[in-house]
């Protein structure tokens, strides 16, 4: 990844007020009133000038130690702190604040008002040097807040191709997989793990240390206090098993046989009257070893908070693949 250092550019931007353009070579820059001298524009490399004039708005602040790829686009009134790295093709909207420790990948989109890599809202945080990683092609919508890690994991991580919608919050030390969707106003507490392709409906609140399995779907407005196994839907109040996420699995190329296999596994866990240990034992003895079986069994065995339960004994499965 190629990066451009902005130590000189910051001084130039301080003089870019109303009428004077950064690209105007007919107006050589003079020393500023704060004692910081500025090199004339014609002494900067052409690649730097191209980036500043066309990609970086003059009414921004970028710390001299921040590293941005040459084609990163930054809109006005955004602040980028030190110890930040931003990859190629990323767009950062106006009034965004990117604080120390951010590592943002390629072709991301960060919409106005977002705050990335603020220190954790954790009373145990002692100023340790932690980071946040955001994968390539991830979109972060308006007024999202994402906090960097603590010494528990030393980082917060957002995967590739994620969509984090407006007003959502991701707390310290969360691990968010690839292709995850957090719908509007999702609130994710610290140390949460969301598997690949997981989807949270709008206004979900996820308790700290909860795990949500891959391909799981959580209905809007849910209070998530227990772990949610892979491949299922969770809904109702209190949050309960609501069938297999057959629609999502179909969209991602799962065959009907695999979807129905996942449904058979969930029937053992939720429909046969077994407790969790009995259900896992039955699955390992009676079901062939498959990716779906092993993923679900391993997830449940490693669950620290226990998994969500069935809503009632009279409920029926909602999703059967045709």
What does this structure look like?
The protein is of the alpha/beta class. The chain has a single domain, classed as Hexapeptide repeat proteins (UDP N-Acetylglucosamine Acyltransferase, domain 1), CATH 2.160.10. Helices cover 18% and strands 22% of the residues. The chain has helices at residues 7-13, 46-54, 246-251, 256-270, 276-286, 291-301; strands at residues 4-5, 61-62, 67-68, 73-74, 79-80, 85-86, 91-92, 97-98, 102-104, 109-110, 115-118, 131-134, 139-140, 145-147, 155-158, 163-164, 169-170, 175-176, 181-182, 187-188, 193-194, 199-200, 205-206, 211-212, 217-218, 223-224, 232-235, 240-244, 309-310. An eleven-stranded mixed sheet has the order 4-7-10-13-16-19-22-25-27-28-29. It has a nine-stranded mixed sheet with strand order 1-3-6-9-12-15-18-21-24, with helices on one face. Strand 27 (232-235) and strand 28 form a beta hairpin. Helix 4 (256-270) crosses helix 5. The longest helix has 15 residues, at 256-270.
In short:
The chain has helices at 7-13, 46-54, 246-251, 256-270, 276-286, 291-301; strands at residues 4-5, 61-62, 67-68, 73-74, 79-80, 85-86, 91-92, 97-98, 102-104, 109-110, 115-118, 131-134, 139-140, 145-147, 155-158, 163-164, 169-170, 175-176, 181-182, 187-188, 193-194, 199-200, 205-206, 211-212, 217-218, 223-224, 232-235, 240-244, 309-310. It is α/β, with parallel strands linked by helices.
**Helical residues, percent:** 10-25%
- Order of adjacent strands in the largest pleated sheet: 4-7-10-13-16-19-22-25-27-28-29
Shape: elongated
Number of helices: 6
Structural class: alpha/beta
From the alpha carbons, calculate the radius of gyration and give it in angstroms. 24 Å
The span between the termini is 47 Å
- Mean of residue pLDDT values: 85
- State the total count of DSSP E strands: 29
CATH superfamily membership: Hexapeptide repeat proteins
| Biggest beta-sheet profile | 11 strands, mixed
Top CATH class: Mainly Beta
The low-pLDDT segments are 1-53
């Amino acid at each position: 990844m190629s990066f451009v250092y902005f130590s000189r550019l910051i001084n130039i931007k301080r003089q870019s007020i109303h009428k004077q353009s950064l690209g105007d070579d007919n107006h050589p820059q003079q020393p500023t009133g704060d004692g910081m001298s500025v090199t004339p524009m014609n002494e900067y490399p052409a690649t730097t000038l191209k980036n500043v004039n066309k990609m970086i708005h003059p009414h921004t602040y970028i710390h001299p130690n921040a590293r941005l790829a040459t084609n990163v686009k930054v809109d006005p009134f955004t602040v980028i702190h030190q110890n930040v790295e931003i990859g190629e093709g990323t767009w950062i909207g106006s009034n965004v604040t990117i604080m120390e420790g951010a590592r943002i990948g390629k072709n991301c989109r960060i919409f106005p008002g977002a705050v990335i890599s603020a220190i954790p809202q954790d009373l145990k945080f002692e100023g340790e040097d932690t980071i946040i990683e955001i994968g390539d092609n991830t979109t972060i919508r308006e007024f999202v807040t994402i906090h960097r890690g603590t010494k528990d994991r030393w980082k917060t991580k957002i995967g590739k191709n994620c969509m984090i919608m407006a007003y959502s919050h991701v707390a310290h030390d969360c691990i968010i997989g690839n292709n995850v969707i957090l719908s509007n106003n999702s609130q994710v507490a610290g140390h949460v793990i969301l598997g690949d392709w997981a989807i949270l409906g709008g206004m979900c609140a996820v308790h700290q240390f909860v795990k949500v399995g891959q391909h799981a779907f959580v209905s809007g407005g849910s209070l998530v206090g227990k772990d949610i196994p892979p491949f299922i839907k969770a809904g109702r109040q209190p949050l309960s098993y609501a069938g297999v996420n057959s629609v999502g699995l179909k969209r991602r190329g799962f065959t009907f046989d695999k979807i129905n296999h996942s449904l058979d596994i969930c029937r053992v866990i939720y429909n046969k009257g077994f407790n969790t240990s009995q259900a896992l034992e039955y699955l390992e003895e009676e079901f062939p070893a498959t990716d779906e079986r092993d993923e679900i069994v391993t997830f449940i065995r490693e669950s620290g908070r226990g998994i969500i339960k069935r809503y009632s004994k009279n409920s029926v499965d909602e999703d059967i693949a045709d």
